[in-house]
């Protein structure tokens, strides 16, 4: 089933939309959630929560890329669950390590300015990703968007763990320099 057919099911409020989404993207959603949460039960709940979120938001939303829209919903729900689960205690998991790696990113209070900053930062990161080697781009996206462990990235791309680690370190530095040059840091 194509993305357009799936969106038409949502817009017609056809309950088959959730079943088809689960069939097509359930494993994908689970993987994202599990990579962030490290817990099977929580990951399964995120799959259900993501399907509910899609049902609530489509319509009025009409995503151009249903795959990316689904990933973003799953990722946001999983990150919220992660923060909820770890409100009292920090550390230990892959997500904590990833967030620590990105600790130099700017933070500001919840305001309109923050939303504008977030969009500008997103556009700048997308532009930056277009300037780096395809392998480094894949490594960066797998680590910081899909929250995959370094070992899994290395295995997926058939490279050594140290190559992934070095590529991440260099890419973060290049990103920092790029954002400073664009005056976003």
Topology at a glance:
Blueprint: H1 3-11, H2 16-37, H3 40-57, H4 66-85, H5 94-101, H6 112-129, H7 134-144, H8 150-157, H9 161-181
Helix pairs in contact: 1-2, 2-3, 2-4, 3-4, 7-8, 7-9, 8-9
Describe the structure in your own words.
There is one protein chain. By secondary structure, the protein is an all-alpha fold. It has helices at residues 3-11, 16-37, 40-57, 66-85, 94-101, 112-129, 134-144, 150-157, 161-181. The chain has two domains: 3-89, Rna Polymerase Sigma Factor, Chain: A (Orthogonal Bundle); 98-181, Orthogonal Bundle (Arc Repressor Mutant, subunit A), CATH 1.10.10.10. Helix 2 packs across helix 3 and helix 7 (134-144) packs across helix 9. The protein is globular. The model has no long low-confidence stretch (mean pLDDT 85).
Key traits:
single chain; 185 residues; mainly alpha; Rna Polymerase Sigma Factor, Chain: A; Arc Repressor Mutant, subunit A; 73% helix
